[in-house]
Amino acid sequence: MPQTLGGIDVGGLERSGGRRSDSIRFGPSAHGVERAEVYLSMFAFEPHRHDTYAIGLTTAGVQIFRYRGSRRICLPGQLHVLHPDETHDGAAGTDDGFGYRILYIAPELVRDALAGRALPFVADPIQEPTPAARPIASLLADIDEPISELSSAEIAAAVADGLLSLSGQTFGRATVDIRAVELVRDYLVAHASEQTPASILEKIAGIDRFTIARQFRWAFGTSPDRYRTLRRLALARAAIESGRSLARAAAESGFADQSHMTRQFKRTYGLTPGRWMALTAASSPETSRGQGRTWRTAPHSSGALTGT
Length: 308
What we know:
Blueprint: E1 13-15, E2 23-26, E3 33-40, E4 43-48, E5 53-61, E6 63-67, E7 70-74, E8 79-82, E9 88-92, E10 98-105, H1 107-113, E11 126-127, H2 134-138, H3 149-166, H4 178-190, H5 198-205, H6 209-220, H7 224-241, H8 246-253, H9 258-269, H10 273-282, H11 285-288, E12 295-296, E13 306-307
Antiparallel strand pairs: 1-4, 2-3, 3-10, 4-9, 5-8, 5-10, 6-7, 6-9, 8-11, 12-13
Helix pairs in contact: 1-3, 3-6, 4-6, 4-7, 7-8, 7-9
């Protein structure tokens, strides 16, 4: 079991016995949102506090920590939800160590997403993967995804709504302003490769970015940022099929780099762009004449392939 030794300056960690190397890896952070992936067996966190919400998902092992006067245990698949400025520590509950992914989000961002309401407090810091908790857990699926101003608003809205639900409150579901979200959708289609600020969409729609995030999902079944990503993937596919290199296709389609495009491509189509390029080349008209089968996606589809 990890033991706190004291006197070692390793960013709030204390060394103890163990065999596997510990690690803390941060993903891209921006606009009041930060994410990390942690594995600990040889070290333990001393008591400390954050000025943000800290929402983690245990991915391996047993995590133990003290929070608000009680010892807590968090198992794989469970969330731990820590309120800003609450003292806590953290260590492995067994010799095998433990891993987790965590989201840090500024409380003012959550408050803005709640239109100025008081910050929600979740009394039980350990949450099962219930329908109320799953939208928050999904935000930790890929900590390497860049955070844009638009996705930051979507994250804030999802966290705010989730925290309200977990604290026994509701935000209320307003009638969708169809005209507003359709204007946003049309703009994202026309400017898919651009880094559109959330402020531009607010001006176009006439509603704030958090309302856009909620109502867009209610109307189209996905977030504005994800919708834009799918439009970028359609552009990337067209570029690849026209003979562009993968790096050029990524740049022209609006992705941060080729690896960013590759992650999103595989997540959406189940294949890497390189494999896609090889398969489409093998199925070109010259090599597949007479087979009569091509693949396409509908202009406003989720990206799923349909055969013709």
